[in-house]
Amino acid sequence: MLYRGMDRAALDTAYDNGAAVGPVKRERYFADRRTRSEAFRERHSGRIDVPYGAGARQRLDVYPCGTPGAPTLAFIHGGYWQSNDKEPLSYVGEGLLPAGFNLVLVEYTLAPAARLDAIVAEVRAAVAWTIDHAKELGGDPARVFVAGNSAGGHLTAMAMQHPRVAGGLAISGLYDLEPIRLNYLNDKLRLDPAEAARNSPILNLPSRSAPLIVTVGLDELPELIRQSDEFATAWQKRGLPGRYVPLAGHDHFSIVEELARPDGRLLAALRALAGA
Fold it and tell me: Residue 52: is its pLDDT beyond 90?
């Protein structure tokens, strides 16, 4: 057995979010995201493909809410570090802009073109760029928050080490990368034990941090729920501010609705962070 009594085949199944919801439902989610994101981009003029580095995918989309000195959310897409783009996540602005948040969508180089060390460095650079340029975006540099789903949840946790981040929202993330190293995802990631360890948030808790909300859908795969639960517990035992917010009735894809909807529970949690 490779990990917690699971062999390679069991680990592959334990982390296959697409198979867990089924191909039909998964495509329905993705089609809805594409349609809503396209409509959002038609309604809202933003600064598109703003470079934060020299790489082809080191780009940001910026959507201001129009309120001077507003808080800003840097949102990081998922895709297990090897797929997806920023554009299909534009729809999260449906809730964020009316709530008075600027939205910055972060894109990064995907595996296998980049190792995870490089991906983490890129996201940290994107967050630093957002803080450094918050004023010119119409925002408050002291209220830049970071969030992301799935791989973006992992990258959110890794970005919390930036001393100027005001808070974070890690959605359905991965916090211990050892099982990732041992399953099908590593075919492209190529993690070795050392790289997996230094990019596992649960093994690299900061000594100080802004508040972090860790959330996961209770209809998700058991391994995803376990990872979130154990990371949130370790975070709190370290004495770091934040809380664990598991959400009933959500799977790995539907949970982002709680940030995108004006009445969403994750949007309410983010607003509470920004007002603290």
Answer: yes
Structural domains of the chain, with CATH: 8-275 (3.40.50.1820)
Tens of pLDDT, residues 191-211:
999 999 999 999 999 999 999
Helix (H), strand (E), coil (C) string for the chain: CCECCECHHHHHHHCCHHHHHCHHHHHHHHHHHHHHHHHHHHHCCCEEEEECCCCCCCEEEEECCCCCCEEEEEEECCCCCCCCCCHHHHHHHHHHCCCCCEEEEECCCCCCCCCHHHHHHHHHHHHHHHHHCCCCCCEEEEEEEEEEECHHHHHHHHHCCCCCCCEEEEECCCCCCHHHHCCCCHHHHCCCHHHHHHCCHHHCCCCCCCCEEEEEECCCCHHHHHHHHHHHHHHHHCCCCEEEEEECCCCCCHHHHHHHCCCCHHHHHHHHHHHC
Q: Over 70: is that where the pLDDT of 70 sits?
A: yes
pLDDT at 2: 85
Q: What average pLDDT does the structure give for the chain?
A: 97
